[in-house]
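Take a specimen:
=====
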Amino acid sequence: MNLTTKIAWRYLKAKKTHNAVNIISIISVCGVVIATTALVCVLSVFNGFAGLMSDKLAKLDPQVKIQPVIGKTLNADSIINVLRSVEDIELSQPVVEEQALAIYSDKQMPVNIKGISHDYNKLTQFDDVIRFGEFELGDSTDKYAIISILVASNLQSGTGFYDYLRIYTPKRQGVINIANPAGAFRQDSLHISAIYQTDQNTYDRDMVFLPIEVAKRLLSYDNNTATAVELKLRKNADETAVINRISSMLGDDYTVNDRLMQQASAYKMVNVEKWVTFLLLSFILIIASFNVISSLSLLIIEKDESITTFRNLGATNRQITQIFVTEGLLISFIGALTGILLGVILCLLQQEFGLIKLAGDKAAVIIDSYPVQLIFSDLIIVFAMVAVVGLFTSVITALFMRARLNK
């Protein structure tokens, strides 16, 4: 520790002549601590919500999804044959997705249908989100559909009911008879085997899962046609490397997306909110830094006699200025480290005990307390932000000190 740092540290710890300077110094440190703690906690809460959303969507989103760049359909068999050489792929299945009309008894609503294989629950974690019934798409006597909780609510349907769920899609080919509008649609009827709930609007709003052969028949697709091919990778596979390899094998005609890219808009929204909030709290930190500038300005005025003594002992103006600049940096760094430590402790307590609860009906929410997730890179960003603000206050202090010494 050099001489200027030792003197700055002594000034920071020592009791000031005027009590107001002590109070302002304490307030300046506390302001930096509180702002830094708030930054850590808020970023961790946004990380928690993003993680919660990712966990819920991962139940039904495939690990990797291949779709055509142009058009809606692709030749699933040819793609699956190409993928056989990729050892890290554990399972690959074609799916068919389209919009349709669902009618149950006297209720109807537009839905998104997704035709899936009978062992689709091996590719995803479908069983984990089923609330009523069980995963079943068909047996020797009947065909079944799995519907979302909001579809069940809107259609007033459920598992074990006698009525059929009827699915209608427009005919893709042929002449439409105006005298018989119903003839312009293809339809099929299925019983409901299960109702699922992910607590994510993307899947809970209007999704109906049904056998892929039923979806192909409704849409007049042949056996090789699908709208996407979904993949499950082996346990320790390098997901990024596999995606890059598949992309190079299939070329530019297909997109190969992981779960994050499949729900890019949802994750982007959470990220935008996270960093907008970070910027707003950073402005509060900048405002708090003016207390540091006030504290240093008063300290400079108070230490006039000491400054004269330093000059008589041969200290240069630069060395004297460095003392107060260093004190400003010490206030910022001590506040940053204390704030980060306090923020981490609060986040760990929230993770363990759920101290801060979410408002609302406990029966209607999937968690009762704010989720938090600490990410080391966020702590680095917060520390860097406080360091930049500390540097700003030091520059202001240096300018004030230089002007005073030149009088």
Remarks:
- The CA atoms of residues 107 and 154 lie 8 Å apart.
- The chain has a mean pLDDT of 86.
- The first strand starts at residue 64 and ends at 68.
- The longest helix spans residues 19-57.
